[in-house]
Amino acid sequence: MSDSAERAAWLRSQIAAHNEAYFVRDTPLIPDADYDELVRELRDLEQQDPSLVEPTSPSQTVGAAPDSAFRSITHSEAMLSLDNVFDESELRAWAERVSRALDLDPADIAFAVEPKIDGLALSIHYESGQLAWAATRGDGRTGEDVSANVRTVASVPASIGALSGALDVRGEVFLTKAAFLELNRVQRERAEREFANPRNAAAGSLRQKNAAVTAERALSFLAYQVVDRSNALGVMSQGALLAALAERGFLVAEDARVVVGVDAMVERSSWFEVHRHDLAFDVDGAVIKVDDFALRSRLGSTSRAPRWAIARKFPPEERTTRLLAIEVSIGRTGRATPFAVLEPVVVAGSTVSLATLHNADQVALKDVRPGDVVVVRKAGDVIPEVVGAVIDPTVERGEPWTFPSVCPECGGPLVRLGDERDSYCVNPTCPAQLLQQIAHFASRGALDIEGLGEQRAAQLIEAGLVADVADLFDLDVAALEQLEGMGAVSAAALVGAIKRAKVQPLSRLLVAIGIRHVGPVAARALATWFTSYAALVEAPLSELEAIDGVGPVIAASVFQFVRSPEVIERMARLADAGLTLIEPSIGSLDQTLAGRAVVVTGSVPGFTREAAEAAIVARGGTSPGTVSAKTYCVVVGDAPGTSKLTKARTLGVPLVSGDEFEALLVSGTWRTTIARDEETVL
Ligand code: IVH
Hints:
By secondary structure, the protein is an alpha+beta fold. 36% of the residues lie in helices and 19% in strands. The chain has 24 helices and 22 strands. Strands 12, 13, 14, 15, 16, 17 and 18 form a 7-stranded antiparallel sheet that branches. It has a 6-stranded mixed sheet with strand order 2-11-10-3-9-22. A 4-stranded antiparallel sheet has the order 5-4-7-8. The two termini are 54 Å apart.
């Protein structure tokens, strides 16, 4: 056998094993992106040498044969898969092929752009408008009879009105992210196996022998296709189809759009990538379909996938790589956090070589060991983490990792305090702690000193210029100029930025000085209550506890913190340096929102709902609970309410991201609004 024939045979056997794990056992062994890469490699080999193609090649087949535990059902028409593209240029190349085959200008073709839901495909057969049976995709030709289970899914209508003949409605069964978290919470409570992700949970829930179990799970079904030979629905385009399905009681993707031309199509598919984390369900890409059914039939299908549709896969959020070592880093409170040193791998579009392991218990629980192949995950803005090891029983593993007993930075002891999960370096002069304290002190959410990041802080410590955050205010241009890479101009800029930090409000200072458990919300509550640091220091514990937004844990932490001799000395030095240590009172705030109604939906980072409303009122505005034509803008936080969003869109009220809320308070305006979709709404 030639090298490539051997490689192709190996790839085929790997892919078959992964198909079985994914489609039949609902327990994938590797992330989807790693699987896609195997398929891609095989396809490339087959393209170079078509004699390597076999009938069982994944390039010729779909899914895996059904599990014998379920009765099998033959689909009235094969359930095909989709071909994938992985970036914009591949997507444009597909559109180019489509336009050539149709002999149409790419600018004139209408495309439906839909989310690619990461669930499992289902075909539901209706006879005279009544649900007759439902089957999984299986190998595309025959699937598993899951009718009894599907009848328990709330978003699957049992009856879809008077329709003569037969109709198959196809779509995806899935769990929303919220339903997935809730299911795993229940599983934990019952000491049962948790699911790795919403897709596995949905598959495991649908393929239950006992429909009563399925009924307990909050499965949803999203419809996107029909087999309708007699055209009972009377539609000739994807846009019209989705509208007809919605009318008959099916759930359809509310963000699906029909757009005209390749540029608009590419842009809309990118919209899903940007917003993937805002959707209620997991998506792994966008699906682009030629809208017009007549054009579709001219394009036709291969044995595996239609030529009129394509899946644009987003950068994977999970990949495997090798764990080279486990090390610990020391934070500003001295907390020792284990992290993984990885063979660099591209995850979610950026190269990851370090990933957090959270704490010693997590390392033990995940049982990851240096030398293992591990799954790395990076979702959205979340910092990369190691999910777990991919165990190969034929390979001998290294020894389990043990937590170090000394600080890697200063050599001091690492101790586990009381019932804390974490270990701490308790050396108060540990340089690693000081570095993190300075970086945090100067960070955006704290005193916001521009030009003072971790690197600069390390230089200042190294040069012996700063041994405490209070020393920052003694720095002068002459001293800073001595540092490498620091000219007179940047030295003066840094001194200026430090000087400006002196008038930052108390709420920011309380964040900056790093009181355990005190984040921006508690800091603001404390600062507005006391208005000065002097008053805060005097307060009895009972008064701290009584403040809205300050629980007993925070109160005790603050009470203890302000009494520590070290802190007393630092705060006296900060006061001497000219820090104002006060919270400007509400009356003195600029009335940037005078007479304006600002509606807040979802949670805004750093604010409780009450605090956000109070902040608007403090700037002269109002914060009503509903959107009207008079609303100045809608601030969209995490998990916003869809009715407010829809109303705002309908009325043309600007949508402002929650990240811009602080800037809105200060300036009364915003830099950008959340793009409103100009495309045709289905
Ligand atoms: S259309 C013949 N639309 O992705 C084409 N599929 O990787 C049928 N999927 O088998 C598929 N969201 O299970 C289509 N909006 C969407 C989809 C979608 C998810 C799934 C479907 C398909 C698989 C291909």
